[in-house]
Amino acid sequence: MKSHAITLAPADAAARKSVKPVICYPVDGLPRPHLEVYRAVRDELELVDQVIVPPRDAACWTVPAGHFCRIRSVEGSQVGDLNLFNARNPDERLYTGKTRALNGTHVGPGDQLFSNFPYLRPIATITDDSLDWYGFDDFGASVHDVIGTRCDPYTHHLLSDGGQYHHCCHSNLTRAFARHTGMAIEEAERYIHDVVNVFMCTGFARDTGQYFMKASPVRPGDHLEFFAEIDLLGCLSACPGGDCSSEHSSDAARCYPLMVDVLKPKRAPVGWSSPPVNGYDRSHGL
Fold first, then answer.
1. What is the pLDDT of residues 233-283, one digit of tens each?
2. Distance (Å, rounded) from C-alpha 148 to C-alpha 57?
3. Distances (CA, A) of 55 to 50, 74, 172, 188, 217
4. pLDDT digits (tens, 9 = 90+) for 135-165
């Protein structure tokens, strides 16, 4: 937080602050997906798998490359924390920091989700979002952020004078990933990473810069859909915060399940092929 300055402003403070910003990562040279090509194959989709994510718990599923995945609200307003892995190599997984740098703080149709170093490539493309009408509200909030890390028991312990809570999204994801992979819980935890906060409505307070949340606008029937650019393993937690209108990391909020559909198109998008891993030679100047 930077709410109270303790340093005297220099004489040229106004001039320094008036410098116009520049975009850190101009994306003019970044290959962008042609959203209409993906959407053209959505007219005939076959449901090949369906997973229910219980409240205050998590579940895993696989999405073959070239398939769609749709996360749906089915009973009540509920947000979810999403991890994505290369289904063949869990060392490659979602990198929300670079996804945020290349897309923005919140993602929507046409945005791509990128994997970590040294792979750094698009692993999923968002193809449909029933909440894209929301945009940014008067508080600066929007939905589906790649800002928040996930609620976790370690931060809860710090903020609650030693409290122990085992159904934060971090723990939920860890348990589900351990069950799916057969890893010991300690090993599985090392793979859990920062999330896409599906349906969560968030922003930064203008006065302090603090990360905030507010009641999600999601309602039963809403969905977020993405296309798998590579074979993916998804892991989703139905957050203990419910719609995240008040608190998380407790059993106080009313929570609901989330539904995940895996959908196979009749044909591949025109010209589509799974992207290769990043071509940097990894010599690092040596």
1. 999 999 999 999 998 888 999 999 999 999 999 999 999 999 999 999 999
2. 18
3. 16, 12, 10, 21, 18
4. 999 999 999 999 999 999 999 999 999 999 9
Question: What span, in angstroms and rounded, lies between the C-alpha atoms of 144 and 225?
Answer: 11
Helix or strand holding residue 100 (H, E): helix 96-103
Above pLDDT 70, what percent of the chain? 99
Residue with tokens 């149709």: 109
d(CA 51, CA 100): 28
Using one digit for the tens of pLDDT, what is the confidence trace for 37-67? 999 999 999 999 999 999 999 999 999 999 9
E strand map for 54-208: 58-63, 68-73, 80-86, 89-93, 112-114, 122-129, 142-145, 196-204
The sign of the torsion formed by the CA atoms of 69, 103, 242, 224 equals: negative
239: closest CA among 215, 222, 223?
215
Centre a 10 Å sphere on the Cβ of residue 48 and count the other Cβ atoms it contains.
13
Residue 215 has a CB neighbour count (10 Å cut-off) of 13
Identify the H or E element spanning 264.
strand 258-265
Q: What type of residue sits at position 244?
A: C
List pLDDT tens digits, range 177-215. Answer: 999 999 999 999 999 999 999 999 999 999 899 999 999
With residue 49 as reference, give the H or E element that holds it. strand 45-53
Domain residue ranges in the chain: 51-265
Kindly state the tokens that stand for 152.
């976790």
**15: which strand partners?**
none
Give pTM, 2 decimals: 0.97
Please enumerate in sequence order all residues whose Cβ is within 8 A of that of 190, keeping only pairs 6 or more positions apart, or say none.
none
Angle at 245 between CA 244 and CA 247, to 5 degrees: 65
